[in-house]
Amino acid sequence: MENYEMTIVGAGLAGITAARRLNKQGRNQFLLVDKSKSVGGRLATRRVANGKADHGAQFFTVRTEELDEEVQDWLKKGWITNWFGDDHPRYTAVDGMNKLAKQLSEEFTPSLESKVTSIVEKEGAYEVTDDKGQVWKSEKVLLTMPIPQIVQLLKDSELSVQPSALKQLKSISFEPTYVGIFHFKTPTSLPEIGQVDQGLPDGVERIVDHQKKGISDEVIVSVYMTGDWSRRYFGEDYVMSLMQEKLASYLNWDDLESEQLKRWRYAQAKNVLRSSYLDLKGDATLVAAGDAFLRENDEAGRTRIESAYLSGKDAAAYLSW
Ligand SMILES: Cc1cc2nc3c(=O)[nH]c(=O)nc-3n(C[C@H](O)[C@H](O)[C@H](O)COP(=O)(O)OP(=O)(O)OC[C@H]3O[C@@H](n4cnc5c(N)ncnc54)[C@H](O)[C@@H]3O)c2cc1C
């Protein structure tokens, strides 16, 4: 049976950042696993015909020196660009947000299409099992999935954790988000910057034209619905036609080539925890992290790319002490 110093469950930005930190320290006895075909989690980009569209995070802002230092490096490498905003730059990845996740994880090999289904304590370590029946040993485990999925995995594993930690995890809920991805035959009349987030009809949060954003050769538009709206219509089969009705005056539906719908069950946390990670057993062997874990002094107070980054970084520092 393979034996690792640490298993990081989830290769979104929090998991990748934790892995990068361990890697930099030369502690490469870790396994980064993700259930998906690609790393990135909510840093998601989809190919549509000969174009592409981001359909998770669109951009990120920076408040801390730590992330800013990285960002200066990513800018130099040509991985990201300042999309808009002079005083408060909105950075975005030049080739789609998922590409940035891939670039950040190119120094190690994540184990993909491996969904962790159980974690059991055995002989002073953890035995981790995935949905393919693979089993490995790990001295420590870092969980970085959206909190409701962490809670579910703990329950399925019948793993006993500190009641106060479990209570904190259970106090966090996530909102869903519907994203419509539309391919048009002709350019849109959206502003040159390629995004609108003001004055939109009720229920619509953001519209992004990826040709104008600069990442797509074809006109691919993502329409983000609000959490409230998405929850209300979650699972209904007519959401695409509702979106089209709402945006009749923004997009030329006669020129529509194709459409797809992305349902994020866990898009953004509605409330947050005020510590950048949580030690679930109190012995620094099983830790939860991710974007809903905010540093105590976090000024933005909301879940976002920067909080995922800082949480992954802090959790790795704690676990590799
Ligand atoms: C629609 C949408 C729009 C957004 N817009 C913005 C924005 O504009 N700006 C911004 O800053 N933030 C935005 N965000 C939030 C941002 O994307 C997240 O805060 C951040 O990417 C979260 O990173 P994470 O690593 O914490 O979690 P995730 O990216 O969710 O990573 C968790 C990973 O765990 C994996 N996983 C889950 N369960 C298992 C399992 N059992 N076994 C193995 N792997 C598992 C998942 O596949 C996933 O890859 C947006 C999010 C969404 C969904």
Helix content: 25-40%
The end-to-end distance, rounded to whole angstroms, is: 26 Å
Strand tally = 16
SSE succession? EHEEEHEEHEEEHHEEEHEHHEEEH
Instruction: Give the class-level CATH name of the largest domain.
Output: Alpha Beta
What structural class do you assign from the helix and strand content?
A: alpha+beta
What is the overall silhouette? globular
Radius of gyration: 20 Å
Question: Can you tell me about this structure?
Answer:
The protein has helices at 13-24, 65-77, 97-104, 147-157, 163-170, 210-213, 227-232, 239-246, 305-319, and strands at residues 3-9, 30-33, 45-48, 51-54, 80-84, 90-93, 116-122, 125-130, 135-143, 174-184, 195-196, 204-209, 219-225, 256-269, 278-279, 286-288. It is an alpha+beta fold. The protein has two domains: 3-39 and 105-173 and 271-319, FAD/NAD(P)-binding domain (3-Layer(bba) Sandwich), CATH 3.50.50; 174-269, Alpha-Beta Complex (Polyamine Oxidase, Chain A, domain 2). The strands form four sheets. Strands 1, 2, 7, 8, 9, 15 and 16 form a seven-stranded mixed beta sheet that branches. It has a five-stranded antiparallel beta sheet with strand order 11-12-13-10-14. A hairpin with a 6-residue loop joins strand 15 (278-279) and strand 16 (286-288). The longest helix has 15 residues, at 305-319. It binds flavin-adenine dinucleotide. Flavin-adenine dinucleotide binds next to helix 1, helix 4, strand 10, strand 14 and helix 9.
